[in-house]
Amino acid sequence: MPAVSVVIPLFNKGPHIGGTLRSVLAQTVEDVEVIVVEGGSTDEGPEVVRGFRDPRIRMIHAGRRGASAARNAGIEAASSDLVAFLDADDEWMPRHLEVILGLRERYPCAGLYATGYTIREGSKTRVASLSPEIPPAPRDGLIRNYFLAAIRGDPPVMTSAVAVPRQVLVELGGFNTAAWYGEDVDLWGRIALRYPVALSRKITAVYHKEALNRACSRREPIEEHVFVATAKRAIEGGEVPPALREDLLEYVASRSIQTAFRNLEAGRPDLARANLKGCRTRRLWKLKYWALLWAYLPPGAYRALEPQGMIEWYNGWRERVRGLDRSATRGREG
Fold this sequence. Notes:
By secondary structure, the protein is α/β, with parallel strands linked by helices. The chain folds into two domains: 4-216, Spore Coat Polysaccharide Biosynthesis Protein SpsA, Chain A (Alpha-Beta Complex); 219-324, no CATH class. The chain has helices at 14-25, 45-50, 67-77, 96-106, 146-149, 166-172, 183-192, 226-236, 242-265, 269-276, 285-295, 301-304, 306-333, and strands at residues 4-10, 32-38, 57-61, 82-85, 91-92, 112-121, 124-127, 140-142, 162-165, 197-208. Strands 1, 2, 3, 4, 5, 6, 7, 8, 9 and 10 form a ten-stranded mixed β-sheet that branches. α8 (226-236) runs antiparallel to α9 (242-265). The protein is globular, with a radius of gyration of 20 Å. Residues 321-334 have low confidence and may be disordered.
């Protein structure tokens, strides 16, 4: 049994998959299997994979059913009891799997292991800004409150910087194949509702926002973020501890607001209004009402002025994060 099974979904990522695979083969942990799940590419991607002669790499075919189905096929084919995920346009630094395995050894109770990451877009690279809920560098540990951490900075869990025990993936049914957007966030949230999440602030992965053919760049309407539905079912089913409920609802609000902005980009202010209806939040109310303002303007208004809208979204979000951090500091000083 290999120490880690690496699952890489592949669909029209020919210019990127070579570098992605080389970053896996350069790991300090060599006891790995690499499962590339081909999803019906029409470019040179599959041929690039075949050009690698390393016996640890194998390619399976899942048909053109989307990234979630591809990842689930990879999970089913995995030999290891720990599955790491990597998108075909991202990459790892050499010690990524070493850090992941170290986390697992120290925190065997966790249902998910993640590391810090950088975000690269064109010539610009920045380190993901993680919440104070996460142990400060160079420490690692269990996130005190995953859902609060997820609204106080960049996402604490990024798909290409995460590994999950296979039994947890099987228990929770893997990725939701009915969703094309947010299905990874949905799985991390479902895991966090049941298990601790372990994270190291060591920067070991690179998220390439400038890559071609990214699903999150699609401008298509979304009726409801998939995790919003998941959280509602969990609350109605009595599966959420009372101490977690308020922070979970804030996180749900953040997903609803994000989805509303995506629907504005898609030219569907009616769906944006539906996303915000019943969206209750104490921390993100400025963002909510900013989105509502755009949702009641003519359908083309947001797309015509989108750059300014996104600047306001970013500035408002960062202002709210800084406010939360200042409040937390005052609380500790008091």
